[in-house]
Design a protein that fits this description.
Length: about 80
């Protein structure tokens, strides 16, 4: 907590929290990235392709439709 993203704003503490639906995400986070075989569903921000500064500094703006048709661009967690 307290880290700054690309935009210099404080990181929303809701980034990366587990979720089941978009309604579980609050504040800046507005999208529940669907679960994958490698990760649980988590809160993020969609449409980062229009404003990459929405993503925290270590996160990546990813076109999720590459994996499932119809999904938006969203900030995805750093890979370990």
């Amino acid at each position: 907590a307290g880290a700054a993203g690309a935009s210099g704003e404080a990181i929303d503490p809701n980034f990366g929290l587990d979720c089941s639906t978009n309604d579980d995400c609050q504040a800046r986070t507005n999208y529940c990235v669907p679960a994958s075989p490698f990760d649980t569903a988590y809160c993020s921000v969609q449409d980062c392709d229009q404003d990459p500064s929405l993503c925290p500094a270590t996160w990546t703006c990813t076109d999720l439709s590459r994996f499932v048709a119809g999904l938006p661009w969203a900030c995805t967690r750093p890979t370990n």
